[in-house]
Structures are given as C-alpha cells and as structure tokens.
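Support reply, case 0932

Customer input (verbatim):
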Amino acid sequence: MNRDIIYTCDVNNTKNNFSRTLYLYDKKIVISSTKQDQTTNDAVQEQRGRSIDLSSFSTTISWIFNKTIIQGFQVSYYCRFSSAQKSLTYRGKAEDMKQLKKLLDCKVLYTDFNNDYLFVSSLHSKEDSEIQKYVQKATSQEKLVKKVNLKMNQQVSFQQLFKSKLEKEVNILFELKQQKHKSILEIEEIYKESNEIIFIMKYCEGGTLYNYILNRKYQIEQSEIKCIMKRLLKGVKHLHKLGIIHRDLKLDNIVLEKENDIKSVKIIDFGFAVEFGYQNIMRCGTPGYMAPEILNQQDYNELVDIYSLGSVFHALSSGQKLYPEYRDKNHLVFLNKLNKYKISSKIIDTEQRQLLLLMIGHRKHRPSASFCLKHQFFRQRSEIPHPIETQLKLLNFPTLKNPFRNQTGKY
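Our regenerated output:
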C-alpha cells in the first residue's frame, strides 16, 4: 500500500490541535496519527473521518491563505457512515501546503473562488457559460476562466444537474491534466460553487484562431497552415489515443497561447467531449464543423473530429467557410447533413486539396489523425515566418513622397 503514496506531510487539526500525518494517494487522502493507523482499511478510516475520497463530487477543498502564503486547508466531504457532509480543517508548514496544492490541482474540486481570484473583464458569453479574465491573488497572474452556470430549480438537485451536465467533462479534464500534450490547453484548477462550476486556465494572449485569421485578413501562408494543422492533428491524435472524442473542434475552440505565434496553438473547451463507447446519437457540436453522421443521428466514432478539423483546414486555406452559400441556420444544417460542401477555388495545391477531401469525406473512408500526419502535404518543406514578420505584414505603412522628385517624375 505504501508504494501508492504520492506525498506525505505533517498537519495539525485546528479543532483539537492534534498532530497528524497526511498521506496523499492517487484518488484519496488519509490523515492518521500513526503509521499503523494509516494502513487500516478504507471503511474503518472513513468511519473515523480520516479517509477522504478525492474523486467524489461531494468533496471540495478550500485553501487558507495569509496574503500569498498557504497556511492550511478546509476539506468538505460526504461520509457514507454518518450519511452527512463533514468538514475538517488542517494547518501545516507553508512549503508542505504549497506542494500539496500543486499535487491536488485537478485531482479534487476547490471552492471559495472569489477568495482566490480578482475579476478583470468579460470576454465572451453564451446561454449557460461565460469566458472571463481574472487575476490569481496568490501569484498576480492573469487567468482565463470559464464559468458554467447551473440553473437551479425545485425539481432538480445540484448533484443531479452537475452529474448530468459536467461529470464527464471534469473527469476528462482531470485525465488530460495527468496526460499532458503541448497542443491541448490544460485546466489548472476546477472550482465548485453553489450554482456554477469554474474552470481555470492559462490566459492566452493570442486569442482564438478565428480572430487570428480575421486579423490577417484571411491571408494565411502555406507554411503557417501546415504548422497549425500538424499541431492540431497531433493534439487530436493524443486525445484519440486516450480514448477521448472532442466533438466540437472549430476556429473558436482553438487558441494561440502567445500573440501571433502559430506554434502555440492549443485545443480548448471539452464541454461536448466524451470517452470512446459513451457517445450516443445525440446531436452535439457546431453546424458547419459537424460530421454528417452526427447530424443524421447515426453511429459514429472518433473520426468525427477529423471532419471538424477538415472544416478548420478549409477556413485556414481559403478564408472561407465549408458551406458558404447557406441562407440561415436551418439551411446550413440541411447542407451539412447531406455533406453538400463547396471547396474554394483558392485551394490550388494538389496535395492540400487531396488531404482536405479525405478529411471531409465519407466516414468509411475518412483517415485517422496518424494517417493525415503522414500525408504528402506535410512532407513538403517550407519556412515558417517569425512572429515579428507576421506583425510587420499587418502594418500599413504610408507611401512617402520623394522630395528630390519633381511633378514630371524626374529627379
């Protein structure tokens, strides 16, 4: 059992000031007075109030700060033996508490969000969620915050609503925190408050890929397209290797961590993500990016993500949508269901066009992310412009008159 211990430190129970030893495992915390007590089975430990299940959505931790220094924590959890929610408070050495928090990030839900963060501005809002910018008090670092509102009513309890809407997303994000990839923006912390779930991420200065294309006036160089698509495909390959389907890949769900740096592209927003075997015929995603089999409520697999990346690929390559002639949303859904796309005439590179057609083709012939990465399109070498070069191209320098030239054009 000791081989499974991730971390151990001494803590004091603030209620009786007794010294205890905290043992951190992958999915639980055991707080014991002796080593022998620590090896007692889970049932006895929980009955004593010393074994806490970190994977339970009833478990939350609130950190106790003195300015920017962590002094301890308060843990709230559901005890099966007393059938009640319990709360315990412990304090420890600042170095131990700092390390403990680092290890617990995205292993357990936190609470008291407003005590830890300062609001800066709102960036984007939807019906049930909002993207905002905050500053973390302890570090003064800017953070990207996604708040998911849980509309309460008398018929549905918080636990039922939370489990139905967010349990899968939280579990997937916990896993991605452990299995990191440079093309996926990892969640740093998750907070559970009375009527919302809050996801904390690193603030991305470059904004969304959609804004990047817009700022570049839809003129993206071939070398940039290859770099972006290669990184996105590697990120999707990683997701599929872990048995995760994103199901909502689009320009707005891809960000640049650094301004004008295409090498820093990251996949975000796992609100529609699901593990292999748990997908159903429910429609989810964004019309224009969705694989036709989802809209037609047919069985599907992870290759729906390849179709979505195909739509992103088309936008990068041409500055146009895959379904540019739709009249309204219903018409867009109709065209998307039939896969009546229109490839832009701006895409003239043979290899580029061939790969695109494979990605947005019929599901039976659609390639995997691994296959796409081996395509001839990515084997053609081309230089990637430096971010400063990219910024210079966006500047409109005025045309200056030559003072040594007369009106006839002669010097």
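We compared this against your earlier run and they match. Two observations from our side: The chain is about 30% helix and 25% strand. The radius of gyration is 26 Å. Please reopen the case if you see a mismatch on your end.
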